[in-house]
Amino acid sequence: MTTWATPAQIQSAAETLVRGELVAFATETVYGLGADASNPEAVAKIFAAKGRPSDHPVIVHVADAQAASVWVSEVSESAQVLMDAFWPGPLTLILPKADWVPSQVSGGQSTIGVRCPSHPVAQALLTEFSEQLIQVRGAENVRAVGIAAPSANRYGQVSPTQAAHVEQEFAELVAAGMPILAGGDSEFGIESTIVDLSRMDQGGSPALLRPGSLGRAVIEEVLGQPVLGQDAQAPRVPGSVKAHYAPRTPMRLWDAQALPQAIEDWLKQYGAGQLAVVASAVECEHLQAVLGSQSRVQCFAMPNHPQAYAQVLYAQLRALDALQMTTIYWANVPATEDWLAIRDRLQRAGAAFETEQSI
Ligand code: TXA
Ligand code: MG
After folding, report:
1. What percentage of the chain's residues is helix, strand, coil (to nearest 5)?
2. pLDDT tens digit string along 36-73?
3. 111 Cβ closer than 6 Å to some ligand 1 atom
């Protein structure tokens, strides 16, 4: 159990944001790398730190629906309904942006992603940041308050769910004084669900741009209409590039029933080295029975429920990287809606290595 950021640390981090510098902070999904969203130079520092292409928009984190309304051109009825039902919480809404919003935040697009995090540390930071901005600049000069924050990892790498992960990702920045506001292990463990509502005023449908812990079914129920999948016209979501969330160790996905044969083949192909196998506890037990005392294969058991699985997924990927195994073989999760977000992350993690024939 790590300790949480103190009020003094939160206050000092808010000062850092007001100065236009970066702050990493806990949220209920993953840790974020934040900057004052109304300050283009500060936002540019996020892109530089992550090594992220500048045409990829960042999410703006706000204290509540009221604060979100200033960043968007209009809070539509559908948006209001979803904000009322799920904010604060792990839901990002894509809406047409307000005219004044700097293009660095929207990645040059006409839309903006807004999210109201529920984590008390993120909420406290937003409150403190707002108060300090008003104090320093004067209320009449503060049009909108928001913290632009992607996940606090290098571009394409595994998202952080613990303060220690952020330290691993950005050791130099932390050494140079970047604060990390700790808030324990992230409750959900994977990034927020992203729903695009930006095309509804032209008769378009809501679309699920990134699956997350908040499932499509509950969103549809509250909206009273279907939420479609990604389509060609949907706003671009770089988290949706095919290879993403990748570990450094070559990783491949297998259906569980194909694993015993795949492992046998791997052992034949690789005369030396260690294979990590990640599967459910039952699958691990079965493999152990088949493999006997094979010391070159180590099985790691994952939880049986999607929520518990999501919570430990990224930490497991990082732990495996730290063990420096030769290869990771990962058992697919069920192809059902409740596993959708996890399947999505696993497929992207594995996609980074798809062209490597040998794994
Ligand atoms: O849970 C989360 O959402 C975390 C925490 C820190 O809040 N943040 C996060 O940010 O995952 P990031 O930048 O790693 O992913 C944000 C995703 C990106 O895929 C980005 O393209 C998409 O949201 N996004 C942001 N603004 C957008 C916009 N205007 N249109 C389309 N996609 C957008
Ligand atoms: Mg990310």
Report:
1. 40, 15, 40
2. 999 999 999 999 999 998 888 999 999 999 999 999 99
3. yes
